[in-house]
Specification:
There is one protein chain. This protein is an alpha+beta fold. Strands 1-8-9-10-11-21-17-14-13-19 form a ten-stranded mixed sheet. It has a six-stranded mixed sheet with strand order 7-6-5-12-20-18. It has a five-stranded mixed sheet with strand order 25-24-23-22-26. The structure holds 2-acetamido-2-deoxy-beta-D-glucopyranose (11 copies). Residues 175, 177, 191, 193, 195 line the site of one 2-acetamido-2-deoxy-beta-D-glucopyranose. InterPro entries: 6-hairpin_glycosidase_sf (IPR008928), Glutaminase_GtaA (IPR052743), GtaA_central (IPR032514), GtaA_N (IPR033433).
């Protein structure tokens, strides 16, 4: 990864010592720095900033960068109107937030609007079993009302979005249309009038359209127009005019909004939910370098099943009940499996899942006749909030344990873009590429070889990922097809892993350093991984050669890397006062390769356990700085042989996630002394979900 530079509930569920913020509503399990609302892709990423706690109706939702994405909501109860979502200037009575709860896929608020409680559920599906569903960048908003005073009440709900969802510059002109009736839907579509494919501005894409849709059932009305007019219409009348504003203009010019109202009728016990779909779609989605001809234009995979966006949205909305059931199942599965590690870990896993998936997009190419080649599946990942590059190898590596857990086939789709590109021979270096392009969504490669060099890091990562995929699935296709490439990287490690030259590791912001012990660990495990790969292809000579190098290096490494007093591994050879988190040992566990003896794990466990540190948020990454990265705390926790040390590392990260200081989507880079966060936010890698891997049996 590259960088330029009631509370009662909450406290009961948090680990000991966690300082939680004290909003006036109950939280379960806690108030994170920002609450995921619609988080499904690099460009559908809406959050409610928290810090000390914002109610759903005291702040605007924001894109992960902090730019507002307008999303407002009112509820009318017997003609009295309450605001429940956003901070619109057309005021109504403020609904009172009663509770907030999150699971892996859902954020749920209960907003009391006088005699009615409105349940506001934001569901961002995670669909590892289904490429069509996973690749459809839409979220659900569902609203249901229930009387809280025993009487029946007339209830109408309202929600709108602004055009801020389609650009990083609100001075640009948008245009829009509303279609009513097709597919039994009412759909607002909005986009920039000037489209710029593959171009980001302030990390928002300047291409494609936002869609906001609901079923065209009785009692649904719509309207587009200036924010204050459309909102005032509902506040005054609890119904919209089914009218369209056709004066296309800049996003911030008399702020056009795209609204729905829905009449829930007379509500006593909980009403049937009214469901909205909100998404952002562009086509083509990705540019990808292939060995011949121009850049390949790739589409989101769901297009293999639908010929119009209306059909796709109709399928998505029609599937809501099943989608909710699948979401509840995955929520329960993550929670149950992660609780087997610890409760703290389960809370972090639940907070991380949506953003781990929303960094990536599953794509497909077209045949020469224009039809889709559904067998050509590639998944690309954006390095959100640092370099913004495409499919950074060490970023995919950090998410990797999650793929092994949910569906290793997704891991294959994440690796293929790098493997195909490098097998084509266009990348000139002897080591693995760092990423596939400096700016998402342009996977244009680095044929000049001038990408950020992390030679030992990325060679080790690729070998470790390819082997673990093969181990999990029994599918030998990667190791057979790309054997020569893997062999080249392994050879590079033979030459470079024991004494890594002055170079970057994944923790690039810490700078270059020679003889990094943690890099040597990764390189040696990578060599050993190649031995396993050779074995699996029936190449006994190759397997034995690599195994013997790995064994010899592991033994030499222990002498080089252990401090003179024998109490810990150093950060770099020979520097006795240095140390760091040896998180790369985790790969040895994940692969079951046992390159390093138990004594190394025990030595480090005891050192971490005794570390003299005033840090309250886990341990520093290494002695160069007081900062750390949340995912490496978790990976390190997965390597220790003592549950107290493990829980203390995990607890530090939970404290960071729940301490109320930040209002940015959960990032990974932070100060272990005071829990302040660095520039990274909404990172797909945020928690590095190692602990789940061991919970799933090998297939
Ligand atoms: C994993 O994903 C592949 C590709 O979409 C799919 O065929 C398979 O059924 C999935 N497996 C599981 C266990 O979800
Ligand atoms: C935003 O768009 C306006 C209007 O086209 C333009 O003047 C301005 O330079 C743009 N700002 C950025 C940061 O692109
Ligand atoms: C809006 O702009 C897009 C992109 O330029 C264009 O294709 C589309 O026809 C326009 N739509 C309307 C309703 O003007
Ligand atoms: C819980 O995790 C342990 C390993 O830490 C494993 O042996 C056990 O089978 C797991 N239990 C369940 C119910 O998954
Ligand atoms: C479709 O994609 C697969 C996988 O990349 C490839 O092997 C196959 O040749 C492609 N089919 C066509 C018709 O190009
Ligand atoms: C790396 O460590 C080896 C062995 O301790 C030493 O000989 C070499 O000089 C070190 N390299 C650098 C660049 O410090
Ligand atoms: C692969 O490893 C297994 C287990 O060590 C061994 O029995 C087998 O002979 C090896 N196969 C080859 C081709 O090296
Ligand atoms: C066996 O593995 C070694 C090392 O990877 C390689 O050089 C050799 O070409 C392989 N042999 C075969 C028959 O693939
Ligand atoms: C040893 O490591 C410490 C902490 O990382 C660093 O401040 C110091 O400069 C290093 N010493 C040498 C000789 O590299
Ligand atoms: C860590 O923070 C303490 C307290 O601010 C400071 O004295 C120390 O120099 C810092 N350590 C490093 C390695 O930056
Ligand atoms: C971890 O290893 C150390 C050293 O061998 C041993 O004393 C300790 O009992 C182990 N802890 C656990 C929980 O196994």
């Amino acid at each position: 990864m590259f960088s330029a530079s009631s509370i009662v509930t909450a406290v009961a569920l948090l680990g000991a010592g966690v300082v939680s913020t004290s909003p006036s509503w109950t939280t379960n399990p806690f108030n994170p720095a920002a609450i995921p609302l619609a988080v499904r892709s690099p460009y559908l990423s809406a959050w409610l900033p928290q810090g000390g706690g914002n109610a759903l109706n005291t702040a605007w939702p924001t894109f992960w960068t902090g730019m507002i994405v307008g999303w407002a909501g009112y509820v009318s109860v017997d003609g009295n109107v309450f605001t429940f979502l956003g901070a619109p200037s057309v005021t109504a009575t403020q609904a009172v937030q009663k509770s907030f709860q999150f699971t892996s896929t859902q954020s749920t608020f209960v907003m009391t609007a006088g005699p009615v409680d409105l349940t506001v559920n934001f569901l961002s599906p995670v669909e590892p079993a289904d490429l069509v569903k996973q690749s459809f960048p839409f979220s659900y908003l569902s609203l249901s009302a229930a009387s809280n005073d025993g009487s029946s009440h007339a209830v109408q709900v309202y929600t709108d979005i602004s055009a801020e969802w389609v650009t990083g510059n609100v001075s640009l002109v948008a245009n829009w249309t509303t279609t009513a009736g097709d597919n039994n839907l009412v759909t607002h579509q909005v986009q920039l009038a000037t489209q710029e494919p593959f171009t980001e501005l302030n990390d928002q894409i300047q291409h494609g359209s936002a869609f906001f849709s609901t079923g065209s059932t009785q009692g649904v009305t719509y309207q587009t127009g200036e924010d204050v007019q459309v909102r005032a219409q509902f506040v005054q009348s609890s119904v919209l005019l089914n009218s369209q504003d056709t004066q296309f203009r800049a996003v911030s010019d008399k702020w056009p909004v795209f609204a729905f109202a829905s009449d829930l009728g007379s509500v006593s016990t909980s009403s049937t939910p009214v469901v909205f779909a909100l998404g952002h779609v562009r086509d083509p989605a990705i540019q990808y370098i292939t060995s011949d001809g121009p850049l390949q234009e790739r589409s989101l995979y769901f297009w293999t099943q639908f010929s119009t966006i209306g059909d796709a949205i109709a399928s998505f909305l029609g599937d809501y009940t099943n989608a909710l059931a699948r979401a509840n199942a995955i929520d329960n599965q993550i929670s149950t499996d992660a609780r087997n590690v610890s409760l703290d870990y389960a809370e972090l896993a639940s907070l991380s899942l949506r953003q781990a998936f929303a960094g990536s997009e599953v794509t497909v190419s077209k045949n020469s006749d224009g039809s889709f080649n559904a067998s050509d599946v590639l998944m690309f990942t954006k390095e959100i909030s640092s370099s913004g590059s495409v499919s950074t190898v060490d970023m995919v590596y950090t998410i990797w344990p999650l793929y092994l857990y949910v569906n290793a086939t997704l891991g294959k789709y994440a690796l293929l873009p790098m493997l195909n590109y490098q097998a084509s021979g266009q990348y000139p270096n002897a080591w693995s590429v760092h990423d596939l392009g400096s700016h998402y969504p342009e996977a244009t490669g680095h044929n000049d070889g001038k990408d950020i060099a992390m030679p030992v890091e990325e060679c080790g990562n690729m070998l470790i990922m390819v082997l673990s995929y093969t181990q999990r699935t029994g599918d030998n296709s990667l190791i057979v097809t790309y054997y020569d490439l893997l062999d080249k990287w392994a050879q590079f490690l033979v030459d470079n892993a024991l004494h890594p030259s002055n170079q970057l590791s994944s923790d690039a912001f810490a700078g270059v350093l020679a003889n990094q012990t943690n890099l040597a660990i990764k390189g040696i495990i990578g060599i050993r991984a190649m031995s396993e790969i050779a074995n699996m292809t029936g190449n006994s000579t190759g397997s034995q050669q690599y195994a013997s190098v790995a064994t010899s290096y592991a033994s030499q490494f222990q002498k080089l890397a252990t401090s003179t007093d024998g109490k810990h591994l150093t950060l770099s050879y020979g520097n006795d006062s240095s140390w760091g988190l040896s998180y790369n040992l985790y790969a040895d566990r994940m692969l079951g390769t046992n390159v390093f003896p138990a004594s190394i794990y025990e030595l480090q466990t005891s050192w971490y356990g005794n570390a003299d540190t005033s840090s309250q948020f886990g341990l520093p990454l290494d002695t160069r700085n007081n900062f750390s990265l949340s995912q490496w705390e978790i990976w390190t926790a997965a390597t220790v042989n003592d549950t107290t040390v493990r829980d203390s590392l995990v607890g530090g990260v939970l404290k960071l996630a729940a301490d109320g200081k930040s209002s940015k989507p959960f990032g990974d880079w932070y100060d272990t002394l005071d829990g302040s966060v660095n520039s990274f936010a909404a990172r797909p890698v945020v928690v590095g979900l190692t602990g789940l891997v061991s919970q799933r049996k090998r297939v």
